[in-house]
Specification:
With about 130 residues, this protein is mainly alpha-helical. Helices cover about 55% and strands about 5% of the residues.
């Protein structure tokens, strides 16, 4: 008997974000931001690795200003700690939630189209979804 393709699940934008947030929190735990995990695992938005060295230093210029010769790995580690601190201070679950409010490193969840969120859901959960 031939298999029929399953109809994709339809999710609201906020529903897809909730699913992604939960999956990313599982991967990151309490010791790393999802930016760091996304970069290390080359998943989701690719975290800080999606930025060139110049762009990373520009986006976090107040960190770079303290030590402009800091190696990229050290810069990423400082940004990771900053993201975690902002999550704690703002009582927000992920760096995407922080950045959606602060808009300094990126725009958080606002950076992603509904199609991006659908693709990330498939990548992180194996679920085929349509976000609208």
């Amino acid at each position: 008997m031939p298999q029929t393709a399953q109809k994709p699940e339809t999710l609201s934008r906020s529903g897809a974000i909730d699913i992604l947030r939960d999956e990313l929190i599982k991967l990151a735990g309490d010791e790393a931001s999802i930016c760091k995990v996304a970069a290390e695992k080359n998943i989701f938005c690719r975290g800080l690795h999606r930025f060139s060295d110049v762009e990373l230093r520009h986006r976090f210029d107040w960190i770079n200003a303290k030590n402009p010769r800091m190696p990229r790995a050290e810069m990423e580690a400082v940004v990771d700690r900053w993201q975690l601190a902002r999550q704690e201070v703002d009582n927000l679950p992920t760096a995407c939630d922080v950045q959606q409010r602060e808009h300094d490193g990126c725009r958080g969840w606002d950076d992603f189209s509904n199609e991006d969120l659908s693709r990330f859901c498939l990548e992180l959960t194996g679920r085929t979804v349509v976000v609208n």
